[in-house]
Design brief:
1271 residues, two-stranded antiparallel sheet, repeat, TATA-binding protein interacting (TIP20) domain-containing protein, ubl conjugation pathway
Length: 1271
């Protein structure tokens, strides 16, 4: 470790005449001070003073390098020396800045700023108090612009770091007074540069001052320009207000009613219109179009932009006027006269050449003395902020005519402004299409007389957009036709055309598409910029894949474009190559005209008219094949080329020479051996094999299959799934060319994958085995040895379900049909029975029964009758597992075949209801319901009779539910006569006290709604109207059942649920019920509608649902139950709050435009102190912060006070168990996730103080926070 003597020697060298010696000495001192293993932190006071003096002295050094390393050393020194030395350095540096050499003042300033940035946080208050007065003194020095500038910079740095410290608050008023004086001073030293520094300092100060001081500051600034006089001082103050807004954000919201009228005075729309229509030589030109005035207007629009972005809630009432102002000044161009023929809707193309000449080579035709373009650019920028704010509900913009106005400004002569106009128009179109993603059918209530905008319906917006397609296409076409320059506008126009593909009308009619394609070809010319080529290719890919215009409108343009796209594949830039290959991969499907499925099965589809398919196919192949065969190219190019060639072969392979197809298959097989391109090659081979063209895979069939089976031994799950899918395609399409050894290899390698460890892989492995079995009966022996043991083990697993179970039953059906020579029907049954014993889980019993039923269903009639007789015998005389399996198997079999011929089967099943074993009774109920599926007339009377008898009501209702649900699942119809018999009995049980019974009734009624809406809905509406008025306990239970049945209908996948739209208001009236369960059931119904079928309910959301949701978020109804030794509290409103949060979460995803975001965010504050709902509230707030960051930022302090701080400060009891501790830690983690989300927002000083005190200041919370951030 270096001693004091070593440091002293270095300090002596620091004064050496040789600058290199001085540099090395100061650098060595810096290294010693910064090293963790040195004693520099324990310098004695004398040496410490010497080090500080020596380093400060080097700031005056004649060498810039020495000065630089001295500044660096200061930052290290400050964390090593005592507070006394820190203050000495502060004083010295401050004095040097104010009174030091002028030529070195910038070095001193850098040193002081470095000090402020590096000083320990604990000394911040003292350092701030020490410096602020002296720096303010420097600011007030007259005739010293350099001193003022450095002092203001240092003040800004000081306020940014320590301005919020408690000790600094006493100086805030003085700081405001002095900096404002500098801002408005007219002295010679107060240059524009000083005013800019003062503005930055005031804005930084505004962040840390209290709200009352902030408001006083803003009001002072407003008073300075109250008279509306246009001057340089006015412009400075307006810029200062804008800067404050950008810094403090939402805190300025309360001042907007005072600020905006002032800004609007300087941006009066009438002034823009009068100047636009006046001649440039008018007498008032000098007064209305001066640079000062334009600069002021530009500042005002920057302010509008900031206010809209930072104060989204408070700005709402001013948006219409702001939009009007932006539209007026967006057209403000007094020095240029536009030709009206350039407007939207003009059919005169004679001026096209003149339009081209409107733009200069560099895209900027504006004169040096014309600053009006800056006003137009700022106006468009403010309008973009409004468009972004209203992205979920753009109807206000359509009402204001923004679409037409923006479209008319595509003729803008200045390139940057024109580019912004097109981009803003594109964003508006994108928002409109997005908001109309869910069609809204508005439901009017009788008392709803408020007149609404015709654009309130997103559907109407899209219809209007469709009518404007021609104008949009024409204006975009003009941009693309400009011969020189205009690249930015061309790029924006291509992006707009790509967005138009998402609209219902797509790119318009045939003539419009023809115009677009011819102009896009210009952007693909060899002389076009590479970036423009890339944008053009991206547009073509979108246009070719678009389904909103027919393929026939694109097909005629493929041949003219194909050479240009092919040339792009030969470019050097990999991005262009990849995009060109992607475009080529979309062309084959375009060349295939849509035909019906029957025609597809007979062979390749017919070619489109007027397209030379063989020539096109060969051109595609010739363009892609060189890239496919290259080895030393980018991976993305390799993968894209593989996909593209696969599309060509699978769709147009019959038009290519056999040699080309064979060569491609060989290349793809080689690529399959490379780990980098393996996945792409496998998928491509699979798509070629499954092509309707029946491509001959024999050249690579054996080699590729053998290699693929080896891949099944690897650990990669995705690879195994890809291989199994490709092998399946090979077997299905080319089984006649595969030999028995190949089938045996496939079965042997696939068998180990049939396990319950991964059901998706098991499903694919079983499917491949099924394909082999269906293709070759000779493979049964191999299946018996390898596949069957694994499959039987899987069937015995309680984890088996879904696709894997369906594949297993399908495989066993095929084995039963084809395996008679090797594996008999009886052997299969015996194998399935053997996997069942008394320890078998219920799910495994159900799976085994379904497999048994599948095998029996395809057996001969004699075999089936024998099995059925045996099963009935097991039911009547058996016990335990054998009886349960018999019942479940009969039920699963009854869903496949008609069992009405089985003698007294209904009586046997009803008798099983009397069993003492719950599992047996449940199985009997299942069986009775499912045997009725194919024999309704036989078994439905039995069920209804038992239900009327009142015995075993729950079990009989369960059977009825299985019958109805199975009909719906199998797309079977239940005629009106049977429904008429069932319905009265279901209605009788709507008010049953057993919630399980009511749930089954609701499920049955929900199925009825999806089966026959018109039959059941009058009954449900009648029940709703009748029971809503009586309001007894039984009536409330009935309403609960009705609401739940509608929820079940909305949750189904049936298209009939759309018909509920006009009937839904009747059921929404349940929200007014006093009964908590009824309201909870209604909210669940609403959540199902919003989540699964939002267009059904959106018409009622704003007026009916949302007010109730916001009310329920804060609703509590706690009752205390006395249990003797202790009391238990129950909150009946808890389900309402939970479901309300779930609805808001669904609405945020499905239809955010119906939410009043600011109101919702205020109401969510109650959830932060709701113990039961706090985690769900945290999750929802995080989602809102991602979607609406500015609005959430406004409420951060509210959320902290409402309960977030309390959550983070949660304490453990001394007697807490490990489970209790983990529960509390999980709650704290939930709160910290909210904190992490808030850290991404632009919050105020209160959040930073909260973060320091409650996160970084507490070890247990900080550790959890760091873990979450690390994740």
């Amino acid at each position: 470790m270096p001693s004091s003597r070593d440091i002293s020697r270095l300090l002596e060298k620091a004064g050496d005449f040789d600058k290199d010696e001085r540099y090395m000495a100061v650098s060595d001192v810096c290294n010693l001070l910064s090293s963790t293993d040195s004693n520099s932190a324990a310098l004695d006071s004398s040496l410490e003073r010497r080090v500080c003096a020596a380093i400060l002295q080097r700031l005056d050094d004649t060498s810039n390098d020495v000065q630089s390393v001295a500044v660096k050393c200061l930052a290290v020194l400050l964390v090593r020396v005592r507070e006394e030395s820190v203050m000495t350095i502060c004083d010295k540096l401050c004095e040097m800045v104010i009174k030091g050499k002028e030529e070195l003042r910038d070095v001193y300033g850098i040193g002081l700023k470095k000090l402020i940035q590096s000083v320990p946080n604990a000394l911040g208050a003292n350092v701030g108090a020490r410096l602020v007065q002296r720096l303010l003194g420097g600011v007030q020095q007259d005739n010293e612009a350099g001193v003022k500038s450095e002092c203001l910079e240092c003040l800004e740095c000081l306020l940014a770091r320590f301005g919020g410290k408690a000790g600094m608050a006493a100086f805030h008023e003085q700081l405001i007074s002095i900096t404002l004086t500098q801002l408005t001073s007219k002295s010679a030293s107060s240059t524009i540069f000083i005013k800019k520094k003062s503005t930055a300092c005031i804005a930084t100060l505004a962040v840390v001052v209290s709200d009352p001081l902030l408001f006083r500051l803003v009001e002072t600034l407003i008073r300075q320009v109250k008279d509306g006089t246009v001057s340089e001082e006015t412009n400075t103050i307006v810029k200062c207000i804008c800067k404050i807004s950008s810094k403090v954000g939402f805190r300025l919201g309360k001042q907007l009613p005072k600020i905006l009228p002032l800004f609007m005075k300087f941006t009066n729309p009438a002034s823009a219109e009068s100047n636009e229509n006046s001649d440039s030589e008018d007498e008032n030109e000098d007064s209305s179009n001066t640079d000062k005035l334009n600069e002021l207007r530009e500042s005002c629009f920057s302010g509008f932009n900031s206010f809209v972005s930072r104060c989204p809630t408070e700005i709402q009432e001013f948006l219409p006027e702001i939009v009007k102002i932006c539209l007026a000044w967006m057209k403000y161009d007094p020095n240029y006269s536009y030709d009206d023929s350039d407007d939207e809707g003009s059919d005169n193309d004679s001026d096209e050449e003149d339009y081209d000449d409107d733009y200069s080579d560099d895209g900027n035709d504006t004169g040096d003395d014309d600053s009006s373009w800056k006003v137009r650019a700022a106006a468009v920028g403010a309008l973009v902020a409004v468009i972004d704010l209203l992205r979920s509900s753009p109807s206000l913009l359509w009402d204001a005519g923004v679409v037409d106005q923006l479209l008319s400004r595509f003729k803008e002569r200045e390139e940057n402004v024109r580019h912004s106009v097109i981009l803003s128009f594109t964003q508006l179109i994108k928002n409109s299409i997005s908001s109309a993603g869910v069609a809204v059918k508005r439901i009017k209530r009788e008392d709803d007389m408020e007149e609404e905008s015709k654009f309130d319906s997103p559907v109407f917006m899209l219809e209007t957009l469709g009518r404007k397609t021609a104008g949009i296409i024409k204006n975009s076409e003009k941009q693309l036709k400009v011969k020189k320059g205009n690249e930015k506008s061309k790029t924006a126009a291509l992006a707009l055309l790509g967005e138009m593909c998402s609209s219902p009308n797509g790119l318009g009619d045939v003539a419009q598409i023809e115009a677009i394609m011819s102009t896009v070809a210009l952007s693909l010319a060899s002389t076009a910029p590479k970036s423009l080529k890339l944008d053009a290719l991206m547009f073509l890919q979108t246009a070719f894949q678009c389904t909103n215009h027919p393929p026939s409108s694109i097909q005629p343009h493929i041949m003219p474009l194909l050479p240009l796209i092919s040339n792009a594949v030969g470019e050097d830039w990999y991005k262009i190559i990849v995009e060109a290959l992607r475009v080529l991969s979309t062309i084959p499907s375009l060349l295939v005209t849509a035909v019906d499925e029957d025609a597809m099965t007979d062979g390749p589809p017919p070619p489109p008219a007027n397209v030379d398919i063989p020539n096109c196919a060969n051109l595609l192949y010739s363009a892609i094949e060189p890239r496919l065969n290259e080895n030393d190219i980018d991976q993305e190019i390799k993968e894209t080329a593989i996909v593209a060639i696969g599309r060509v072969i699978s769709t147009l392979g019959n038009h290519l020479p056999n040699e080309a197809v064979e060569k491609t298959l060989t290349t793809l097989t080689e690529r399959m051996g490379n780990e980098i391109t393996r996945a792409s090659a496998l998928k491509t081979l699979g798509s070629i094999a499954s092509s309707p063209l029946k491509i001959d895979m024999s050249p690579v069939l054996e080699v590729a299959t053998e290699e693929m089976t080896h891949f099944l031994r690897q650990h990669s799950r995705s690879l195994k799934m890809c291989v199994l899918e490709t092998i399946s395609a090979f077997v299905q399409s080319n089984n006649s060319k595969m030999n028995p050894k190949l089938f045996e290899l496939i079965l042997t390698e696939a068998a180990p994958l049939v396990t319950d460890a991964d059901l998706q892989v098991s499903h694919l492995a079983i499917s491949v085995s099924y394909d082999v079995l269906a293709s070759s009966s000779d493979s049964v022996a191999t299946i018996q040895q390898s596949t069957m043991p694994a499959l039987l083990k899987l069937i015995a697993s309680p984890l088996l379900q879904g696709l894997a179970l369906s594949s297993a039953t399908k495989f066993l059906e095929e084995l039963s049909l084809k395996g008679s020579g090797v594996v008999s029907f009886e052997e299969i049954l015996k194998s399935l029975h053997n996997i069942v014993d008394e320890e078998t889980k219920a799910q495994a019993l159900s799976n085994t029964s379904k497999c048994l039923a599948a095998v029996v269903a395809v057996a001969s009639e004699s075999q089936r009758n024998g099995v059925i007789k045996s099963l009935v015998g097991d039911i009547e005389g058996g016990s335990g597992t054998s009886r349960t399996v018999g019942l479940l198997t009969l039920g699963a079999l009854g869903e496949r075949v008609d069992l009405s011929s089985v003698d007294k089967l209904g009586e046997v099943l009803l008798a099983a209801f009397e069993s003492d074993d719950d599992q047996t009774k449940s199985a009997a109920s299942f069986a009775l319901g499912h045997v009725s599926v194919r024999a309704v007339d036989c078994f439905l009377p039995i069920i209804l009779s038992a239900l009327e008898g009142g015995n075993k009501t729950y079990l009989v209702l369960s059977s009825l539910k299985e019958l109805i649900v199975s009909h719906l699942a199998n797309d079977l119809e239940l005629d009106d006569s049977n429904m008429s018999k069932i319905l009265p009995l279901l209605i009788n049980y709507c008010s049953n006290e057993d919630e399980g019974v009511r749930s089954m009734v609701a499920e049955c009624l929900g199925c009825f709604v999806t089966m026959n809406l018109n039959f059941i809905i009058p009954t449900l509406k009648g029940l709703a109207s009748e029971k809503k008025q009586a309001m007894t306990e039984a009536d409330n239970l009935t309403l609960w059942t009705v609401a739940t049945s509608v929820k079940n209908a909305l949750s189904s996948k049936s298209k009939n649920r759309d018909g509920l739209t006009e009937h839904l208001p009747v059921f929404l009236e349940f929200l007014e019920s006093e009964d908590f369960p009824v309201r909870a059931a209604t909210l669940l119904m609403i959540n199902a509608a919003v989540h699964y079928q939002p267009q059904v309910i959106l018409g009622c959301m704003k007026e009916v649902v949302m007010p109730k949701l916001l009310e329920f978020l804060e609703l509590k109804s706690v009752r205390v139950i006395d249990l003797g030794p202790f009391k238990h509290k129950i909150d009946d409103a808890l389900p309402l709050r939970k479901t309300s949060l779930a609805i808001l979460d669904s609405a945020l995803t499905q239809c955010p435009y119906i939410l009043n975001i600011s109101e919702v965010l205020l109401k969510l504050a109650a959830g932060f102190k709701d113990t039961e709902n706090v985690v769900a509230t945290h999750q929802l707030i995080i989602r809102f912060s991602q979607a609406y960051p500015a609005m959430v930022a406004q409420n951060v302090s509210l959320y902290i006070d409402s309960g977030l701080q309390k959550t983070l400060n949660k304490k453990f009891k001394e007697s807490a168990t490990a489970q209790d501790i983990e529960k509390i830690n999980e709650l704290i983690r939930s709160g910290l996730r909210v904190v992490i989300a808030f850290k991404q927002l632009e919050t105020d000083k209160n959040f930073e103080a909260f973060f320091d005190a409650n996160v970084t200041g507490k070890d247990n919370v900080r550790i959890l926070y760091e873990e979450l951030v690390g994740q």
